[in-house]
Design brief:
Layout: H1 2-33, H2 36-62, E1 68-70, E2 85-89, E3 109-113, E4 119-121, E5 127-129, E6 131-142, E7 145-151, E8 165-166, E9 170-178, H3 183-189, H4 191-220
Antiparallel strand pairs: 1-2, 2-9, 3-6, 3-9, 4-5, 6-7, 7-8
Helix pairs in contact: 3-4
Length: about 220
């Protein structure tokens, strides 16, 4: 009987202490929630997670690792202009229609990794395979593997590396064009864009520090 009473007492004490600890933790969380820095960081994390989720969703739906890309050259003018965003759908090479632009209908516009396996710098110090957006003008199957030949509509000739390359380099087929919106991405990837972001973030931090100090002084007075 005494042991049972002791056990009940210890259990009640433990529950009381646990409840106090939970209340203290909740109070701290509420105080942190009012912190503007934490709110900003939380918002940035939500935005990053949202963008990553959107990108992963597009990858799953369009069946390609590069569902969105930005046109960076004039090789496909006037169909594609610098700054256009293109949506890419992963397809089997057998589904790609290949024909010169003068044919009716012309061949599919496809995205493929540069067969020389070159990479390029994207945001900050990250690199990614260099992608090419050209029209498929010819394809042939050899030993169960499709080989493609492409050419930019606005190019006078073909690059040596695009005269014949295996299907493994194909990323997908262009299915949607969104004009001009890609200029934002191109700017952010440039050196000017990166330094602009750094300067803006620094200015915001300094401004927040100055205004918070003024607020503290006004409360003290």
């Amino acid at each position: 009987m005494v042991i049972w009473q002791i056990a009940l007492f210890l259990l009640n004490t433990f529950n009381l202490e646990l409840w106090k600890a939970l209340k203290a933790l909740w109070s701290r969380v509420k105080r942190l929630g009012k912190n503007e820095y934490l709110q900003t960081i939380t918002l940035l994390v939500i935005v990053v997670i949202g963008i990553a989720g959107f990108q992963l969703g597009l990858r799953a739906i369009l069946k390609t690792d590069y569902p969105l890309a930005v046109v960076e050259s004039e090789s496909m003018v006037p169909i594609l202009n610098v700054g256009d965003i293109i949506m890419v759908q992963g397809v089997d090479a057998s589904e790609i229609y290949a024909a010169p632009k003068t044919e009716n209908p012309p061949g599919d516009i496809i995205v493929f990794r540069k067969p020389t396996n070159e990479t390029r710098r994207v945001y900050w110090f990250f690199t990614a395979p260099e992608l090419i957006v050209h029209r498929a003008i010819y394809k042939v199957q050899n030993g169960g593997v499709w080989y493609l030949s492409t050419k930019g509509d606005n190019n006078l000739g073909q690059w040596e590396w695009e005269r014949r390359f295996p299907e493994a380099f194909v990323v997908g087929r262009v299915v949607l064009i969104i004009p001009w919106l890609g200029y934002v991405s191109l700017f952010l990837q440039s050196d000017q864009g990166m330094w602009t972001i750094v300067c803006l973030m620094g200015a915001l931090i300094i401004a927040e520090y100055i205004f918070s100090r003024k607020g503290d002084r006004s409360r003290e007075s």
